[in-house]
Structure formats: C-alpha cells, structure tokens
Amino acid sequence: MEAFVKPFIVVCDGMDADVFASLQAVSEFDVHPKAKLTQDEIKELLPKASALVIRSATKVQEEYLELAPNLKYVIRAGAGTDNIDKVKCGERGVKVSNTPGANNNSAAEHAVALMMTVLRHTAAADATMKNGGWDKSKYTGNELTNKKVGIVGFGQIGKIVAKRLQGFEPEVKFFDPFCESSDLAYVSKAQSVEEIFETCDIITLHTPLMEETKGMINKDLFNKMQSHAILVNASRGGIVNEEDLVSALKEGKLKAAGFDVFATEPLEEDSPLRQIPNLVLTPHLGAATDEAQLRVGEMAVNQLKEYFLNDNLLHEVKA
Questions:
Q1: Domain span at residue 176?
Q2: Is 284 a known active-site residue?
Q3: 32, 169, 174, 183: which has the fewest C-beta neighbours closer than 10 Å?
Q4: Which residue in 166, 184, 240 sits closest to 207, CA to CA?
Q5: Residues 24, 101: Cα–Cα separation, whole Å
Q6: 3-state DSSP assignment of residue 75
C-alpha cells in the first residue's frame, strides 16, 4: 500500500490568525509557517506546493504552473477567479475552487459605503481637515434618500446591496440577463443596461468579469448618464474602460465615482485615476473585513480537508 505523503499547503495572501492556526493543527498537512508571502517567496515554494490558498494578489497563471509540478489544488479565498488560468489548470489536472458567498456582505456594504463617501465628500473633507482646513461650504453633498439607484448585475451581492439600501427609501432598478425579478417591492427590472445609465442617480456595478462583460462600461454608456449621477464599482475592475471613465469625469458626463477595483492591481503609481479629484479610490477593500476573512478562511480549510483527506471537491470552478 502506498504511503500517505502529507500535502504541502501554501497560504499566499493572508488568513485569519485563528483559522490559520487551525490549519496548522491538521496533522495530515504540512503547512508553510507563514500565511502572507511575497511573490518571490511564493515562487520559491511552488516546486513542492500541493495546494495554494490565494486571494487577489497572487495570480496563478502559466508561469506559476510551470514552477509547480506537484500542484493539485488552488483555492481562491473569495468569489472571483479571474486571477487563475483555469484552462491551464485543467490541462495540468489542477483543481480550482472558490469560497462563494463568504465575502458577499462585506462587498455589498463597501459599495454602500462608497456611495455615501462620494455623495457626502467625506474622504476629501477629512483630508482637508487633517491639513488644517475647514472647508464646510466646499463640500456640500447630496442625500442618498429617495434617489433612483441602478444595480448592474443582480446576483447575490447585488441583491444584498438592494436590501441594505432599503432604509434610504430608494427606487431601485436592476439589470441582469440571468434574473427576471426581485421579491423586494421597491425593486424593478430595467429592460437594458442603457436604461440604468439613462435614468438612475446612482449606479453600482456587481457583475463578474468574463468575456461578455470585459470593458462593457464605456464611453457609450457614460454619454447616457445624467450629469448629477455617480458611479460605484466594487465588483471587478476590468468591466470598466478606465480611459473612458477618466474622460467622462473630466468632461462632466457624471458628477463623481467611487472605485474599489481596477483593471490592473495594484493600481499603477502613475495611473491617471489617481489624479481625478471627483473619483474616490480604495485599494480593493470589498472583502477586507475581519468577518469576511474568518468566513473565507474557514471555508478554505474545510475544502482542503475534504479534498485531501476525503477525496471530496467542494465549490469547483471550471474554465
């Protein structure tokens, strides 16, 4: 009978400390002792890695797969797997899973937080206060109450956003070709994404990044926006044409925007996005809550146990 060889588990981009300790306590696993690694450190460990647990910082593309002949399993501690080359993984027999649902509430709340930050200029006001200013009249904002909110993509996160907005008494429209209706009385389906951009005061994006959505938010849609409207993106950066966004903000096609995600991450130091005063930027914080990290970590540890110890693959994601 073939002897059991402990799988070597590498946690690349951080994990809740207690959850990581519970993973290290699994006697059948050999777990690398650090839970947050640089990309150079990851490359050094790839030749003997059996499994990788990653977030958005690590990209499992062909280069990494070439360095990892023993790799059997990649877990994305989150929902989006666009940073994993699933085709190449499939060709090499490497299984891929995500942790669906664990980040949903945190991502939805961050979208609402960006709405409020953009509407009330809180980030800019704080910066001027820290520099000794008191620019009260400069930062007169707008209310969220009774606004028309458009949600592009009405999956789990989009639906949570709609629920979290309920106390603001909005009129909510959504567009999603895979969802026909909502059970919330104040939510209705728009006939097209163009209708969302033409009629809504606040637009928030919650679509996955795939071939059909890549670059779908572009100058054609920006040209349809009302000049007082704002745009929030806490989903995936690649769905927005960032060059068109910069132009639209400069030209007043929309009033302002709040973005948590970008086509290239980390955002380049010289990105034009950093120079736009009516654009609030956060460094992909949608899932960055203690609660979300606890949930994704617990799911990932359970998936590792099920796969390596019980030959049971949970939440597989295929190309």
A1: 104-281
A2: yes
A3: 183
A4: 240
A5: 24
A6: strand
Annotated catalytic residue, options 171, 195, 198, 265: 265
- Please list the rounded mean pLDDT of every run of 10 residues in the chain (319 residues): 80 95 97 96 97 94 96 93 94 96 95 98 97 95 97 96 97 96 94 98 94 95 98 96 98 98 95 97 94 95 97 94
| In-domain check, residue 246 | yes
pLDDT score recorded for residue 209:
87
Residue the block writes with tokens 């349809």:
224
CATH code at 56?
A: 3.40.50.720
* Token duo for residue 294: 């606890």
DSSP 8-state assignment for residue 319: -
The 10s digit of each residue's pLDDT in 30-67 is: 999 999 999 999 999 999 999 999 998 899 999 999 99
- Domain membership of residue 26 (yes or no) is yes
> pLDDT of 205-226, one tens digit each?
999 888 899 999 999 999 999 9
Q: Choosing from 55, 284, 295, 298, which is the catalytic residue?
A: 284
Active site residue 265: yes
pLDDT in tens, 121-137: 999 999 999 999 999 99
Q: What angle do CA 8, 14, 17 make, to 5 degrees?
A: 90
| Rg (alpha carbons) of the chain, rounded to whole number | 21
Nearest CA to 22 out of 291, 305, 287 is that of 305
Report CA-CA distances (Å) from 93 to 44, 68, 78, 170: 21, 12, 22, 48
Residues 270, 188 share a domain: yes
Q: Which of 283, 281, 294 lies closest to 105, judged by CA? A: 294
- Please give the torsion angle defined by the CA atoms of residues 280, 157, 223 and 278, in that order, rounded to the nearest 10 degrees: -10
Q: Which of 206, 236, 295, 298 is catalytic?
A: 236
80 within some domain = yes
In this predicted structure, what is the pLDDT of residue 82?
86
Compute φ and ψ for 24, nearest 5 degrees: -65, -25
CA dihedral 122, 116, 111, 13 (to 10 degrees): 20
Q: How many domains does the chain have?
A: 2
